Amino acid sequence: MKKILIIGAGIAGISSAIQLRAQGYDVEIYEKESTIGGKMSQIQSKGYTFDVGPTILMMPDVYKEVFKLAGKNPDDYITMTQINPIYSVFYSNHDRLDVSTDLVDLIKFLEGISEKDALGYMQYLSEIYKRYLVAKDHFIEKSFRKPTDFYNPKTLLKALELKTFDSAYHAISQFVKDDRLRKLLSFQTLYIGISPYNGPSIYSIIPMIEMIYGIWFIKGGMYGYVQGLSKLMKELGVIVHTETTVEEIVIENKQVKGIRVDGQLIEADIVLTNADFPYAMKNLIKEEKLRKPYTDAKIEKMDYSCSTFMMYLGVDHKLDNLNVHNILFSPDFDGNISEIFDGTLPKDPSMYFYCPAKLDPSLAPKGKEALYVLVPIPNQKTFEGPWDETQIQSYRRLVLDKIKESGMIPDLEAHIETEVILTPKDWNLRYNAHYGATFGLAPTLMQSNYYRPHNTFSKIKNLYFTGSSVHPGAGVPIVLTSAKLAVGDILADHGKQK
After folding, report:
1. How far apart are CA 242 and CA 6, in angstroms?
2. CB 455 within 8 A of CB 466
3. Which of 113, 238, 397, 483 could connect to 15 by a Cys-Cys bridge, CB 3.0–4.6 Å?
């Protein structure tokens, strides 16, 4: 039985471990934190429970597939509920839209804007769904192991069908004219840390996926999914070492020999790395020549996603005017996006608010709210702020003032019972996200598909990668797909073990 060591217990590492163990491999995970889940972890404070990172659950079948691949019934491990409306959107003039996936409600909402935009929206869904099927079958769910996997007539022709040379916002603008709708159908590129004005138009599939497949909630919040996977790992016999930092991937004769922990070699037949790809290249493969083309200089030149300023607030009363998911658009959305990606701390930021206790009361004390506030901001490559206590408190003040001015939660500060803040510095130090880029490498055109780091590292035998900075990219369903692709590559090279 071959032994696989997995570096990092993020969601891709956990998912990979389950699939590989189900195929008969001896699997152990090494995680530097005290808990598993990576960015999909949890904060608990004074009776309040907060998800740390991901919160919006799309494509539920992808989440369930991990259990099915291990021969298990997902319903024995997780409880999912569909949300409708999927979110509420607040504009600068106190205009509010509650976005529903119910077709009757949706048409009524769209016709209230204009019949032309209602027609355009339906055309958008049809056109983008066609592109999504092409992307899924020929790019997202396909592993690129050698040049001919991409550079062949069939794949190149399919790439042209995706029409990726346009931006997401401009592509959306061809279907709808109302500015509120254009923002509503393009801001989702921020889910993967890229600007809607520069991100490839293929990412206009995200709002289509929200509408067609819905948005869901797992009991216990997103960490409930980690808990379900953890239960399955224990049943399968996957060994997890927490509070254990991997110092090096040990390589001999261009082949993996194992990992080094506390100065000691732990041998393995295969190493699968779930640590963020740029961090792993720079810190875990010590000889730069072994990791070409990913030299230190190459890694520094790569494009990185934006970061986030996070506030986890225990609020002493229910926020009845909010839904589970809520978006507040800056009055100057264009300027806000420019600031994020030009390296300026937004002065009037757009924000996202998450209130999971509305669906799972166990996540907050009775009659209270566990409020998660996310503010997209520049990463540390473009904005080199120290993120010391002075800067944290300064930006906290700005965010709270903007929330008050918006009218969404006018007296929020007076009702905060507990508070935790994370900054780009935390994403960097705690989660090894290079430059504090919350979503990893930016999914630009030249850092997507074949041009994104591959799941198999061809220069070093038996070394594989998974996670948001490798193919196919960021976002939980896509990261789970990354795990499936990495496992597929390992099985292709080594076969089943039982």
Report:
1. 12
2. yes
3. 483
With tokens 């790019």, the residue in question is: 139
| Letter string b/e over residues 22-54, b meaning 16 or more CB atoms within 10 A of that residue's CB | bbebbbbbbbbbeebbbbbbbbeeeebbbbbbb
Q: Which domain holds residue 392?
A: 303-431
DSSP assignment of 315-327 equals ESS--TT--SEEE
Q: Are 316 and 293 within one domain? A: no
87 within some domain: no
| b/e code 83-100 from CB counts within 10 Å (16+ = b) | bebbbbbbbeeeeebebb
Q: At what angle do helices 153-161 and 115-135 cross, to 10 degrees?
A: 160
Q: Do 235 and 143 share a structural domain? A: no
Nearest to 378 by CA among 429, 308, 442, 297: 308
DSSP secondary structure code for residue 239 in this structure: E
Cis amide linkage into residue 293, ω under 30° from 0:
yes
Pick the last residue of a domain from 393, 411, 431. 431
Cα 329 to chain centroid, rounded: 21
User: 138 and 163: one domain?
Assistant: yes
Total structural domains within the chain: 3
Give the span between the Cα atoms of 101 and 379, in whole angstroms. Answer: 33
* Residue 281: closest CA among 251, 243, 252: 251
Per-residue pLDDT tens over the stretch 160-172: 888 877 788 888 9
Give me 407's structure tokens: 């009218």
Whether the CB-CB separation of 257 and 221 falls below 8 Å is answered with no
DSSP helix/strand/coil, 215: strand
In a domain, residue 66? The reply is yes
CA atoms in the 13 A half-sphere facing the CB of 75: 1
Those residues whose C-beta lies under 8 Å from the C-beta of residue 411, and which sit 6 or more positions away, are 404
Contacts of 418 (CB under 8 A, 6+ apart): 45, 46, 48, 313, 314
397-449 tens-digit pLDDT: 999 999 999 999 989 999 999 999 999 999 999 999 999 999 999 999 999 99
Say yes or no: 366 and 333 in one domain. Answer: yes
Same domain, 206 and 256: no
Residue the block writes with tokens 């934190």: 33
150-159 pLDDT, tens digit each: 999 999 998 8
CA distance 315 to 498: 52
| 268 and 364 fall within a common domain | no
CATH number assigned to the domain comprising residue 21: 3.50.50.60
- Distance, in Å, from the CA atom of 448 to the CA atom of 471, rounded to the nearest integer, reads 7
Nearest to 123, CA basis, from 110, 135, 136 = 110
Q: Are 228 and 77 in contact (CB under 8 A)?
A: yes
pTM: 0.96
Output the pLDDT for position 352: 97
Closest CA to 472 of 497, 447, 498, 435: 447
Is residue 45 in some structural domain?
no
Please indicate, yes or no, if residue 324 is contained in any of the structural domains. yes
Q: Which of 195, 213, 231 is the last residue of a domain?
A: 213
